[in-house]
Amino acid sequence: MSETASGSEKKSASGSNHKGHRQRLRERFRNSGEQSLADYELLEFLLFSSLPRQDTKPIAKALLQRFGSFSAALSAPRSQLKEISGLSDVSVDTLKAVHASVIRYHKGELNERQLLDSWNKVIAYLQASMQHSTVEQFRILFLDKKNGLIADEVQQTGTVDHTPVYPREVIRRALELAATAIILVHNHPSGDPTPSRADIQMTQKIIDIAKPIGIEVHDHVIVGLRTNVSFRSLQLI
Fold first, then answer.
1. Residue 237 and residue 226: Cα distance in Å, rounded?
2. What pLDDT, in 10s, does the model give residues 121-152?
3. Cα-flanking dihedrals φ and ψ of residue 127, to 5°?
4. Which phi-psi region, left, alpha or beta, contains residue 191 (left: φ > 0; alpha: ψ -120 to 50)?
5. pLDDT value of position 141
6. Which has the closest alpha carbon to 231: 194, 205, 198?
7. What is the full DSSP assignment across 23-59?
């Protein structure tokens, strides 16, 4: 009887500590905001609702150890997230929904704006969308004559170091959307945004086709892990 009671008391104390930790974290967040929480604590907080009876601290720390940063954990592929011990399908959904919300927020900042007048917001959106992708993506921002965003489309998805790009298909789509300008974008999963010779040649081919029909290529942005490169800033356009 005494052993059973002792075990019950330990279980009760553990549950009380667990509940108290969550409450303290919530109060700190409410009173002092997100800056008061370390990256692992914010990940803990995000997992509270999907893992109501688990200690989320070791899971949060495992996420940071595996992926290296808060943003990388949110944008990691589902298959890799599910390899983290303790993460359920619902908790993976939670993390992916937060990442989708970040992208949606930054994209919303671009709507109804002249993109060239809000360049920092453009870069923030592109980095949120692409910097942690494990494969190359080639996307295009299609602009109207006032440099407002008509459409944002991923045209091609490739491998870890190559994406096939077809210049005439790029221009065909611009004509379909009645775009007068475009911004080309792709990512380098290696993390190094330095343009390759192929990147430069492909960009020039698109410019050569676009210019005679009145479509301007404003820029080509390569998104790296924590930085990006603008062809215009490098005087490659």
1. 23
2. 888 888 888 877 888 889 999 999 888 888 88
3. -65, -40
4. left
5. 92
6. 194
7. HHHHHHHHHH-GGGS-HHHHHHHHHTTTSTTS--HHH
Q: Where in the chain is the domain with CATH 3.40.140.10?
A: 120-230
pLDDT at 161: 53
Model confidence pLDDT, tens digit, residues 30-64:
888 778 888 989 999 899 888 888 888 999 999 99
| 84-91: long-range contacts, CB 8 A cutoff, minimum separation 24 | 84/59, 85/59, 86/51, 86/54, 86/56, 86/58, 86/59, 86/62, 87/59, 88/50, 88/51, 90/50, 91/47, 91/50, 91/51, 91/59
Global pTM value:
0.66
Q: Which of 215, 210, 220, 213 is nearest to 187 (CA)?
A: 220
- Element (DSSP H or E) covering residue 124: helix 119-130
Burial class (CB in 10 A: 0-12, 13-18, 19+), 219: buried
Whether the predicted pLDDT of 13 surpasses 50: no
Cβ neighbors of 234 (< 8 A, separation 6 or more) are: 195
Task: Return the SS3 of 157.
Answer: strand
Q: How big is the chain, counted in residues?
A: 237
Domain at 120-230, CATH class:
alpha beta
Structure tokens at 221: 């942005």
